[in-house]
C-alpha cells in the first residue's frame, strides 16, 4: 500500500488539481492518496468559496481516496504554521510514504537547500534577518534579502534565482513543507511538480487549467457558466447545487458588516492580542476602520510593504473567530491533536483501516464522539473548528441558516470507486 499525501484547499477543485492528483500518484508510484484539506477558512485569510463538506465531496468524486481536515488553528495561518500542521498530520498517520506539492520551480533540490538553511538558521543568517526587519521590511522580504546576503553567489543559487524562488507563493509553501519534514524528522519523501500554465495570482480565465484565484473571481463577480471548462464536470455540479441552495458563494465581503462592527469596537489592547499585530499596526487598523465602511477599503488603507494584504486578512479572520495569539501559541505548542475524516472512497476505507493501527493521533469519524477522548487540548482545538463552521455560515445569509453542522454532517463515503 503506497500512499501519497497532498496538502490542499480545493477552493474549488479544478482541472489543475486533477492534473496534480494524477501526476502525484504517477511520479511517486502510489496507488492511494490522502489529502489534508483546510476547513472553512483558508491560509490566505478568507472563507472558503464553498463549505468543507462540499469540497471534500468534490475531491473524493474526482479521485482522492481520503480527505482529512486541517484544523483552523493551522489552516488560517502563515505558511510556516500551515505547513507544519499539515505535515504533522500526514506524518502522524504512520502510513504516508511520500508527499507531492506544486511549485513554480518544479525542482526539489534548490527548494530543499533553502529549507535546510531556514530550518537550521545559522547565526550569520539570523543577524542578516534581524537587520533587514529593523529596516522596516516585511518578514518575507527580509528573509529573501537575508538569504541573498548569507549565501552570496554560489555555484547553484545566485541572488536573482533566490529572489525568483521566494517571490512565488507555491515555492514558499514548498520550502515550508520541506522545513517541517526536517523539523519533525519525518520519513515522508518529498516530490514537487512544476505548476502548469496559470500562475497562482492570475485573475483571468485563460485556458482549461486556470488558477483558483481566476475561477473564484469569475464565480463571485460574474457567473458559473464562465468557469465550466476549467473544472471537472462533478465539481461544476457541486458548485451549481451550492449556489442554488445558498444563492451565493462565500467571500470576505460577505462578512463586511460583522467585521466593521468588530473593528470599530476594538481597542489597541484587543488588537495587540491578535497574532501578527505588531507595534503600531493596532492603531493603524483602528484609524482606517473609522474612515471607511467597506472591508476592502479598510484593508487597502492599512496595507503597506510591511503589512501585506494576506497578513491583514488573517488578522481580521482571527478577530472574527476570537482566536488570539495566546490560544494559537498554546495549541501550536502541543501540535495537531486529532485526525478528522471529511470524506473517503472504497480505497480510503482500506487506508483508514490500516491507519487505525498505525496513527499516533486519535481518528475522529463522528464529531460528537470527541469529548470521549478526554483531552483538554484536543477539545480546545476542535471546538475552534466548530466555531469556524458556525461563523462561516453567517456569510451565507441568503441561504438557510444552519447551526451545529459539525454534529449533523457525516463524512462523505463513495463506495466502489476506482
**What is the count of distinct domains?**
3
Total helical elements: 20
The class by helix and strand makeup works out as: alpha/beta
**What is the CATH superfamily label of the largest domain?**
HUPs
The global form is globular
From the alpha-carbon coordinates, what is the Rg to the nearest angstrom?
21 Å
In helices, the fraction of residues equals: 40-55%
| Binned strand content | 5-15%
Let me know the number of strands.
8
Give the SSE string.
Answer: EHEHEHHEHHHHHEHHHHHHHHEHEHHE
Low-confidence stretches: none
What does this structure look like?
The mean pLDDT is 93. This protein has 20 helices and eight strands. Strand 1 (3-8), helix 1 (15-27) and strand 2 (32-38) form a beta-alpha-beta unit. Strands 1, 2, 3, 4, 5, 6, 7 and 8 form an eight-stranded mixed beta sheet that branches. The longest helix is centred in the last third of the chain and has 19 residues, at 376-394. It folds into three domains: 3-104 and 175-249 and 331-414, HUPs (Rossmann fold), CATH 3.40.50.620; 108-167, no CATH class; 252-330, no CATH class. The chain has helices at residues 15-27, 52-61, 72-75, 79-92, 108-120, 123-134, 139-151, 159-166, 169-183, 212-221, 233-246, 256-264, 268-272, 281-289, 295-302, 309-320, 325-334, 346-358, 376-394, 405-408; strands spanning 3-8, 32-38, 66-70, 98-103, 189-194, 339-345, 363-364, 412-414. By secondary structure, the chain is α/β, with parallel strands linked by helices.
